[in-house]
Batch of 4 targets.
Target 1
Amino acid sequence: MSILPKKNKLGFFEIRLESIGGLGANLAGKMLAEAGVLGLNLNGSNFSSYGSEKKGSPVKSFIRFCDSDTEIRDHSPIEEPHVIGVFHEALYKMVDVVSGMPTDGIVLVNSTRGFDSIKDDLNIKYGTLAIIDALGIAVEEKTKVNTAMLGALFKICDFLDADTMRDVIRKTFEKKYPHLVEPNIRTFNRGYEEVQFKNYDISLNVEKKDFERSLSLLGYETQEIGGVILANGNSILKDLSGSRQGFIPRLEMDKCISCAACDTVCPDNCFVWEEGEDKRGRKQMFLKGIDYQYCKGCLKCIEACPTVALTEMREESGYVDAHRVPHKFPLLVGGAI
């Protein structure tokens, strides 16, 4: 008898991890598949999808399980997963992370916010929502988000053997990073114990949200004459919040000396300046604030700051919107940006 709780028409139980590069979703997918294969004698496969510059950009990891008498001949991306793991909640701004989720599906989100707030942001109409403060656990245990997410995923996928996962964690870290074995096992255990769930029953007037494969807006048949690039890499509309790994710089203006050390090392020109006069009436540029829209949380500015005006803080919901100082870009000829 099969131990898999659900199967699609090909006989697979499928999991999709939505993340950004640097949070360990690729490794988490490998470890998750390994635990299912070694611990339960299931057939399993795993692969990830990401661009050339993985860190900070969207990453997907796909895991398939099936019974030992079923062959895995499908190696396409998972479009209708039974379980979705969202490693970074700001991804919904860039990616439809719950695309293809079935009516009885489960989505796990790394967040400290309430269920209904996340439900509205992700546009979830049905299924089960699970929340885990994976970043908080990782900070306290000095590990990474992925192990806490794995713990929560094992609570969700209760057919998997948690002890096998602990053995996989030991095997993964003991050779190169033996000092990280026990902290990662503690992180896994906390993720398993601290995840919370809330079920949303599908209503009569809500239809299942089918998977929609995104198509290129400008292909070889629809490209603008002259090859005009409408969404260039340094567009002022670009929002880098989805690339942050949970931390941002906090600026205390009363401690700032406007030395520009932060601006010198910032790779994305996040700091906003304005012209003023010093105590002797001489013209000088003064730091006005941070445009967090462009901040990817590299924290190089904190290392460069000679005072304590810039400090590291965990990003809290609403803080960026309340403290952002927008750049004022001039309009070009014709009113175009």
Target 2
Amino acid sequence: MTTIIQPVTAPCFASRTSRRRFLYGTGVGLALPWLESSPVRSDDSAKLGTAYDSSQPPVRFACLYFSNGVEPKHWWARGRGSSMQLGPGLQPLLPYREDIVFLRGLFNEQSVRNSSAHLGRMPNLLSGAWVSLDQNDIRVGRTMDQALAKQIGHRTAVPSLALGIEPTELRLEDGLSMIYGSCISWASDTRPATKEIYPARAFDLLVGDGKGRKLDRSVLDQVLADAKKLKLRLGQSDRKKLDEYLESIRDIENRIDRASREQRLEGWTPTLTEPNMVRPDDDLPQNVPDHMRLILDLVVLAFQMDKTRIATCMLNNDLSQMNFGFLDGVQGSLHLDLTHNGRDPALEAMYLQTNQFHVQQFAYLLQRLKAIDEGGQTLLDSSLLMFCSNLFDGDKHQADQMPIVLAGRGGGSLQTGRVLDYLNRGDEHRRACSLYLSLMDRMGVHLPRFGDSNRRLANL
């Protein structure tokens, strides 16, 4: 069995090494970096030198998003702990009052400034960045979940999960791509993270079904051997780029090693080493509540097996076409129509039901995580969960504050059972990106600045 170094379509001259090549082994091609033109990649995690206690359960982060905001008069919280009072929209969280933090008044300034009432105010939910209104230049800032994945994603087999219920749409809406309305996780300014809506494919990503897994250690060994031969023919600058590339290959090796053993020699071990749920059917579920619960079950599975520590889940897309006729009293109305209700009392009542339904999904996730013991503390205690939307009053497209509920104790780093109100503290003190910096700190990722903020959220 041999591995071939083979150029692709870039021109190749006899006296020079082609700048774009692939390393091939048993039918698998791995692209080399763009030699002589690629920027040198830095290893931010090495610079940070973040330490974490491997004897304790790791902190997990998940963001659960619902579209088109809330009915404001029903979205409020007062008091503390078990005495906390919750508005009608939040009633499903009553059993978890001591596990949550209700946040009021945080916002993304670039959302408020954007003239596109929906697509200019949604994809930057987790980045606080400006959203390009040029349909030929899809551009959003990298999101905080992906900033986390860049730093700590190498510790798990799957660096991060991006999940959803509705598919990524490619149509235009008001002259802008619905990619903006379909993705809250962005791997770079111009590329959203791949969102998975099929439970079976997400299950296979986490567990593996033994099919089509060509990338094994023997292939990587061959690739590394040929890459070392190639290195002898490169200049100093390209050697450095190739070394950085080989580090990424070694990271794949480490992940394969982790996936091939079910026990650890020391420190914390996951409470689950084999999936405790059957593989979902290949087809996309047609029942919305069942689909949502199945996706959330996969988040729980991923966290319990320590397959990933970072996840996002979109319960609906922005401008959602989801029909909530499955709820009693909500007959044949699209979610988008219910949220843009013009204060019609009948539509407002149905809008409240959809808000409560979304909150029920968050409560389900809390219930599942709280039931899992990790040696003296629950999986919920070891998590940081954020439930949010990009708009407040969906009917008014109000972006000057966001509905946000946190849950979990982040391994003891977050005091729950509180209401924190930032609405009248001044814009510098109520930036959502300040919250993201604070949450990333609790995950062991310390950045001097993220999005439009260089300060942590006060009192969190």
Target 3
Amino acid sequence: MSRALLAAFAGAALAGCGRAEGDGGAAARESTVVRGAVPVRTAPVARMTLQETVSGPGRTEALRQVRVRAPFTGTLVALRVADGDGVARGEEIAALVSRNSAAALAGARAMLDAASTAADSGDAHRALELAQRGLVQAPLRAPEGGVVLSHAANEGDLVNEGDDIVTVAVAGSVVFVAQIVQSDLARVRPGQTATVELAARPGPVRGVVHAILPAASSENLSAPVRIDVAALPGPVALGLFGTARITVGKRTGALVVPAAAVLRDDVYGTSRVAVVLPDGTARWVQVTTGIREGDAVEITAPPPSPQPALAVGTPVIVAGQVGLPDGARVQAQP
């Protein structure tokens, strides 16, 4: 018997063994493996509604800041709040003693300290009692509820009439001001929904566009857009940087592929995806992409002929396609 016949018999015997073991799973495994095929992962082309957004960086700001000022010249004898403290409307946050009262009080105490006789001590005590009785002291109260942003004086400081003592950001007045490029401003309207992602917060904050503010920048070709945000979790903080995404429209029934399926050639500025044909081979297809929402990327134009068309359900490769030659045999893996 020739070697060729022996090899043929051996192959037939092995094949028979493979079929015989089908109930044990060997045949099932062999049926799912294509010899010489590249293992890849695929996902189907789909249709969905995408939100069209414009975005820009920005930070939190307070629309209303109230300042507690000294009603007269005097000494700040008490400061009961610190930066970042919450205050209620009408809450006493500081106390001020007039300059004359403070001088009389200081003079009486100096007399008491310097008294060397009983008579001198009695006079000093009477002077101290008179100074305390005629003490002109004014409590300084928060005109609005909110959060203390800063203080400009400390206990014991001499302040003049009208000097700032404490600055309070009024509760509910914190907004997010985003810098949107001028080319996108035509699509921004009051009332549009937005999300704000702050570096200092764990999740996005919902908001609504209030207006485009009249302070455009000629340096970076942007304009500020005020976004009224929902109540921020935790203490109010100004100057928190983040990114706003404003929904300016939606694309219904858009043809989309997973973002991982799209490979971009930065040299030529083109994008392409690898599709799996019915015969199990991969074909590269040049595509034109549109908007992106999360992991979905819109395909805005059909591939140029004679490339395969993209239709709903067409499998595209999302993993294993890098360096894959056109026409290579592939095997989809779970």
Target 4
Amino acid sequence: MINVALPKGRLGEKAYETLAAAGFDCPAILEKNRKLTFENPEKGVRYFWVKPSDVSIYVERGAADVGIAGKDILLEYSPDVYELLDLGMGRCRMCVAGPEDFYQDPNKTLRVATKFPHIATRYYDSRSQDIDIIKLNGSIELAPILGLSDVIVDIVETGKTLLENHLAPLETIVDISARFISNKVSYKFKHQEILAMRDALERNLTKKEAAE
């Protein structure tokens, strides 16, 4: 049985649809109940929903053999897992954003509000820019509007929220999408099963891309 950690929400639902289309369906997961795990012994899979930022922890610690995690989570927390496949879903960008007329004074410490302090720190370290990280958990766009920060580092999907608040993406740090990841020990002991799942996902994605 392969234990699969899925992120709660739209991305996880889309990921499950992809897994089901690849031959790893589990009808129990679609039932309305309070169960925490869902399995299909015939297909050899057991699924469970977790908070998106926790997927990599479950996989790294071996509670899950494999999982679906956003590249943003992998870059921020650097879990000790194998990244096996770019699923090409949940595409967005990690960006520096701020006022449309923002000018960065290289001689001043830049105040950066973000949910992703490690990504932001690494990015500005590579540019030898002195920064003051302000860790926030929500409403990041509010920080530069109220003068709490000069810029923000956050995920940008459509840019609509930024536009409505007179902000703009200034620089793209990295492109983000969902990744199929594996626990390192599981990859060794369930090698064939995990590779079979990865290969089935890859075939399904190739077929889907060809149809589009």
